[in-house]
């Protein structure tokens, strides 16, 4: 049985409080229908220019900030208008530098990505590879076997190569068919493929790498992810034009010489992690696989309270003033402002968020896409009509002149109405994240501290490339909050499981027939924590939200501080360690391939910027993990403005005590399992194509339990009652039933049929390129039709059209 032990009780009171994962969430919530959608609250803090940046004026934990809802705080004007703006921006292809990449491009199928061509990325986060290609870290070879990795890296065993290379006789084939623009097939999965997929993986003292891999048929550190943009250097925005100006750059994503730099035959880059669903993510505490999208939104970038410098511009009696913003319950907003600036996902390299604002405020919303006239949010603004047989025809876009009008309708005037001062972006203060083994992307996290100056009297002022109006400078605030408001409506709380459970607090009784007998048995396996009989799934995917990295389980207070995120448990090797609740190392890949939650905010270099550096810890970047932050806090190594958002002991108001050992490396956020039938491939690296593959992974106790033993989650020990289904009918039935519950019992029909609120505008989705015309991917595009609030007649597709039960 997994034990979650509260730090304060153990360390301060010397008494042990045992909590199983199955009890971790508030058990008063039987179904998602009862869980309230969290409401963002904002505090606006004027910048103390006399003390900035050493002490920026945001007080420490003993002083409460005046948090209010977004309307009372004077940020949002109209919530319905905010949701309309958010849905338009989320689905609009014009946001991408190429006029093609929308947020929805990687989240169009049950909030995830079901494409299967040009979705392979090499192991760009893999620390075991010491790459010599500038700006592209990690392993650049497509399809190579990751074990033994020393044979595949020309820079190893040169320092700092592995100290103990794998044995030479460990010869595990890779995936030589994997290249840029490759069309995946069902036979390519799982990536870590086993001769006997449910046999327990060896682990523990005396186990060698050869023992751990004796049953492995093939393996690679490649990732199945989502294609984004071609590598291009940003030159400028051309207002009124959806495509940015830029210069093509050589890239390893090419069909002539894959893994080596080439310019002429480039295809779209593929991200270093798989894209998870956006549905129900409003309940997550932090977002992204590594949680870098902070629960606290700072209005500028994903890192929230860990960014001590970046501000927004507020119009105060005709003068623009710098203000800090801290918004709670807002990790979706933090997440939303990341991809639009990523040179892998949506952006030409070096494009700042004010540049995105400069373009978008000049464009007609959704000008390239049809919007269903019965769209549940945007239908009243649609320029399209239905023909006699129900097809959407007519003009694309909305009957709104530009995004400027939608921003003015949604946000209070003081955030956009100054047209007398120009804000220059000072190149000396622009902060750019360089690619690293934690994250291969380049992205502008700070647009610079632009000091506003008076605009010329002429009403036809033409801005220079590095000059912006207030509405453009603050566009990250508008984008983040609007997309969050829209995504907060994407709650799938009408699954067979929710009907089975009922919602007593709302007068809804449970229906015992909502789940089939097979699904009920699968539910019992899912919930059962018995090490011999149960799957212990609920320990990490706690019902009813189906992840325990949620606001229900972590219970943040009104000041945005988590009450129960730093926990400790007995690890797989029997020793105790701290970890962040909801983040686990489950051994899908070796820890060294992607440290995930063990990473940091990436210090932008050059130039050094105090925004992301800890002045009390030698200028090191702030860690992503709350456990690591608590360790710094216990040693008085956090500035007050960061400390105020770190978990404190409720009785002493001091940092929670922590152990010397932190189990955070290789830990990924436990994903929400609702509608998972449609969100494959699975895991952070897209290892598995079907839910049967996933269940087999947990049945054998992971892929790398011995390699990762120090950080391994103690529940990754295997599931005895599911082993050897090829011989045991009971195991075969149990696997079948568990897959049935997860695939069907947790699927909301509205998601499968794209009924409101899951309806959407038309979308043109890149899907690789013709092999002989790598620059002409429009020939391969998938057109996702506009869908209205009544949905479609047939369900959306699973990944590769596979049955969840397929092996």
Walk me through what this model shows.
- The structure is a single chain.
- Helices cover 16% and strands 11% of the residues.
- It has a domain at 41-115 and 232-487.
- Helix 10 crosses helix 15 and helix 14 crosses helix 15.
- The protein is built from 16 helices and 25 strands.
- With 807 residues, it is α+β, with helices and mostly antiparallel strands.
- The chain starts with a strand and ends in a 23-residue tail after the last strand.
The pLDDT mean sits at: 90
The assigned structural class equals alpha+beta
Count the DSSP helices: 16
Largest sheet: 4 strands, antiparallel
Strand content: 5-15%
Distance between the termini: 29 Å
Question: Which spans of ≥5 residues are poorly predicted at pLDDT below 50?
Answer: 1-26, 157-163
Strand order of the largest sheet: 4-3-12-11
Shape: globular
Number of strands: 25
Instruction: Tell me roughly what share of residues is in helical segments.
Output: 10-25%
Whole-number radius of gyration? 25 Å
């Amino acid at each position: 049985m997994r034990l979650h032990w509260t730090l304060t009780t153990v360390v301060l009171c010397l008494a042990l409080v045992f909590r199983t994962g199955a009890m971790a969430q508030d058990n008063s919530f039987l179904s998602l229908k009862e869980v309230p959608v969290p409401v963002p609250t904002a505090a606006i803090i004027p910048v103390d220019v006399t003390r900035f940046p050493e002490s920026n004026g945001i007080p420490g934990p003993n002083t409460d900030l005046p948090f209010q809802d977004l309307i009372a705080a004077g940020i949002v004007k109209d919530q319905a208008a905010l949701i309309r703006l958010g849905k338009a921006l989320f689905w609009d292809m014009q946001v991408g530098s190429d006029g093609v990449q929308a947020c929805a491009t990687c989240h169009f199928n049950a909030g995830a990505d079901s494409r299967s061509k040009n979705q392979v990325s090499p192991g760009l986060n893999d620390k075991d590879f010491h790459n010599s290609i500038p700006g592209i870290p990690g392993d650049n070879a497509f399809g190579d076997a990751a074990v033994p990795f020393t044979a595949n890296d020309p820079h190893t065993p040169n320092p700092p190569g592995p100290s103990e290379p794998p044995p030479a006789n460990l010869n595990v084939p890779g995936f030589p068919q994997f290249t840029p623009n490759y069309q995946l097939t069902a036979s390519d999965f799982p990536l870590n493929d086993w001769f006997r997929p449910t046999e327990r993986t060896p682990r523990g003292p005396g186990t060698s790498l050869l023992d751990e891999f004796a049953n492995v048929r093939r393996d690679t550190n490649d990732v199945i992810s989502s294609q984004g943009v071609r590598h291009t250097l940003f030159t400028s925005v051309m207002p009124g034009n959806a495509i940015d100006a830029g210069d093509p750059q050589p890239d390893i994503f090419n069909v002539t010489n894959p893994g080596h730099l080439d310019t002429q035959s480039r295809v779209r880059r593929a991200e270093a992690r798989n894209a998870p669903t956006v549905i129900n993510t409003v309940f997550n505490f932090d977002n992204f696989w590594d949680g870098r999208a902070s629960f606290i939104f700072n209005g500028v970038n994903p890192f929230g309270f860990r960014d001590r410098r970046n501000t927004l511009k507020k119009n105060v009696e005709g003068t623009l003033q710098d203000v800090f913003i801290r918004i709670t319950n807002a990790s979706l907003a933090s997440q939303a402002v990341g991809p639009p600036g990523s040179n892998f996902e949506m952006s030409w390299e070096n494009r700042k968020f004010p540049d995105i604002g400069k373009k978008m405020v000049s464009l007609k919303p959704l000008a390239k896409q049809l919007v269903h006239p019965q769209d549940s949010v945007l239908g009243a603004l649609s320029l399209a009509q239905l023909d006699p047989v129900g097809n959407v025809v007519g003009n694309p876009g909305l009957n709104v002149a530009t995004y400027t009008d939608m921003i003015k309708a949604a946000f209070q005037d003081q955030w956009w109405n100054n047209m007398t001062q120009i804000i220059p972006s000072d190149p000396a203060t622009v902060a750019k994240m360089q690619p690293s083994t934690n994250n291969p992307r380049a992205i502008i996290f700070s647009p610079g501290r632009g000091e506003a100056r008076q605009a010329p009297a002429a009403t036809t002022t033409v801005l220079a490339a590095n000059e912006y109006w207030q509405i453009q400078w603050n566009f990250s605030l508008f984008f983040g909050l609007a997309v969050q408001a829209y995504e907060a409506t994407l709650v799938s709380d009408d699954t067979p499981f929710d009907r089975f459970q009922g919602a007593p607090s709302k007068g809804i009784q449970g229906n015992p027939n909502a789940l089939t007998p097979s699904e009920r048995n699968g539910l019992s396996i899912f919930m059962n924590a018995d090490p011999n009989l149960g799957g212990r799934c609920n320990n990490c995917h706690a019902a009813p939200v189906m992840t325990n990295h949620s606001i229900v389980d972590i219970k943040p207070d009104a000041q945005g501080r988590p009450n129960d995120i730093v926990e400790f448990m007995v690890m797989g090797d029997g020793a105790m360690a701290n970890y962040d609740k909801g983040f686990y190392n489950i051994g899908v890949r070796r820890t060294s391939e992607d440290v995930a939650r063990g990473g940091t905010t990436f210090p932008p270099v050059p130039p050094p910027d105090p925004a992301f550096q800890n002045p009390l810890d030698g200028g090191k970047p702030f860690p992503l993990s709350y456990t690591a932050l608590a360790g710094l806090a216990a040693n008085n190594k956090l500035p007050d403005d960061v400390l105020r958002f770190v978990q404190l002991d409720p009785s002493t108001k001091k940092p929670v005590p922590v152990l010397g050992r932190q189990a955070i490396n290789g830990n990924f956020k436990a994903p929400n399992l609702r509608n998972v039938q449609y969100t494959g491939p699975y895991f952070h690296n897209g290892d598995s194509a079907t839910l049967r593959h996933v269940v087999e992974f947990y049945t054998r106790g992971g892929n790398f339990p011995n390699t990762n033993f120090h950080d391994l989650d103690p529940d990754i020990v295997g599931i005895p009652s599911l082993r050897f289904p090829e011989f045991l009918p009971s195991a075969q039935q149990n696997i079948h039933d568990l897959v049935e519950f997860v695939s069907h019992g947790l699927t909301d029909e509205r998601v499968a049929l794209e009924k409101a609120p899951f309806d959407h505008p038309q979308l043109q989705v890149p899907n690789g390129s013709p092999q002989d015309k790598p620059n002409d991917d429009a020939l391969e595009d998938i057109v996702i039709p506009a869908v209205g609030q009544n949905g479609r007649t047939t369900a959306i597709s699973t990944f590769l059209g596979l049955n969840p039960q397929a092996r």
